[in-house]
């Protein structure tokens, strides 16, 4: 039985490019099902995608994270390809990404971007990607080089055990952290990255969405590495206690600060220990769910 491949394309106002994306996906993956999930587009993205041969569905909640959560829940396949609807990613590379996923038994393969045109990747986006990737690497030990790439290939076991909490463009960050914290095998393959076609505009705001991604990183640090997060707060309280009680000659006015800092130290430390136990149990549940899905192996499907 052949491996079933699904191409997932989240879209918002991509009428200028979506037809070409669907046609290219059908060309490089003739046996795959192409799904376009329209996210309240104001143009005729859905109509163009349908005419090009895609299966079009709609998501009312605005934001890429909401769309990805719905796509992962709805679609059944052995291998999932996710790309953007703006024709900036090199879909000719997708069969190679799928081959890497299957032959090397990975759960996620990321197409890292290699610019082919100067205007393909704005400086602000490039710098923000580097900065956020560096921060995630420090906090979570992830060694990926292009954290915000929109071209990814997933196994079924990844898709069906990933629980998206993001609403918008933070979704790529969450995918990376999920990969790292659950010790899932991943790979990166360099792919070409092109400028948007004329009439197509980026929906990503460098400042606004950059801060959203930053806040998501901090949120994930608290929820995925709670012992480290709360230990830092406990150390801050310990340092405050030391400064007030040891280095300074405190009077009655200083006493509440010393007391509260001392209580805060033990409070945050206990929070970290308790939350760390919870996240370990959660990861065990994810692992059991993960193991319930067989890996798509070409040899087993002959």
Name its key features.
single chain; 302 residues; alpha/beta; Spore Coat Polysaccharide Biosynthesis Protein SpsA, Chain A; 2 domains; 7-stranded mixed beta sheet; 7 strands; 14% strand
Notes on the protein architecture:
The protein is an alpha/beta fold and 302 residues long. The chain has two domains: 5-222, Alpha-Beta Complex (Spore Coat Polysaccharide Biosynthesis Protein SpsA, Chain A); 225-290. 50% of the residues lie in helices and 14% in strands. It is built from ten helices and seven strands. The chain has helices at residues 18-28, 45-52, 64-74, 94-103, 123-140, 156-159, 171-181, 206-224, 226-247, 255-291, and strands at 5-11, 33-38, 55-58, 79-82, 108-115, 152-155, 186-193. Strands 3-2-1-4-6-5-7 form a seven-stranded mixed beta sheet, with helices on both faces. Helix 5 runs parallel beside helix 8 (206-224) and helix 9 (226-247) packs antiparallel against helix 10. 37% of the residues are buried.
């Amino acid at each position: 039985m052949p491996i079933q491949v699904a191409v997932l394309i989240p879209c918002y106002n991509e009428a200028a490019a979506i037809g070409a994306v669907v046609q290219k996906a059908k060309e490089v993956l003739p046996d795959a099902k192409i799904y376009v999930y329209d996210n309240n587009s104001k143009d005729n993205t859905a109509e163009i995608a349908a005419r090009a041969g895609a299966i079009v569905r709609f998501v009312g909640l605005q934001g890429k994270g909401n769309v990805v959560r719905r796509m992962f829940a709805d679609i059944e396949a052995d291998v999932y390809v996710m790309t953007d609807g703006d024709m900036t990613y090199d879909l000719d590379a997708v069969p190679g990404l799928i081959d890497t996923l299957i032959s090397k038994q990975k759960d996620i393969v990321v197409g890292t971007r290699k610019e082919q045109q100067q205007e393909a990747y704005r400086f602000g986006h490039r710098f923000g990607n580097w900065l956020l990737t560096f921060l995630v690497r420090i906090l979570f030990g992830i060694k990926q080089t292009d954290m915000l790439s929109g071209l990814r290939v997933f196994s079924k076991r990844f898709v069906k055990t990933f629980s998206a909490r993001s609403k918008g463009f933070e979704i790529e960050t969450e995918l990376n952290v999920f990969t790292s914290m659950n010790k899932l095998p991943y790979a990166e393959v360099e792919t070409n990255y092109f400028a948007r076609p004329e009439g197509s505009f980026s929906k990503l705001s460098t400042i606004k969405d950059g801060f959203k991604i930053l806040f998501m990183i901090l949120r994930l640090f608290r929820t995925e590495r709670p012992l480290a997060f709360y230990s830092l707060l406990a150390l801050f309280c310990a340092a405050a206690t030391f400064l007030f009680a040891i280095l300074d000659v405190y009077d009655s006015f200083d006493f509440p600060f010393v007391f509260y800092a001392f209580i805060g130290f033990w409070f945050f430390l206990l929070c970290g220990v308790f939350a760390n136990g919870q996240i370990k149990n959660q990861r065990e549940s994810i692992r059991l769910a993960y193991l319930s899905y067989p890996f798509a192996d070409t040899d087993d499907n002959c």
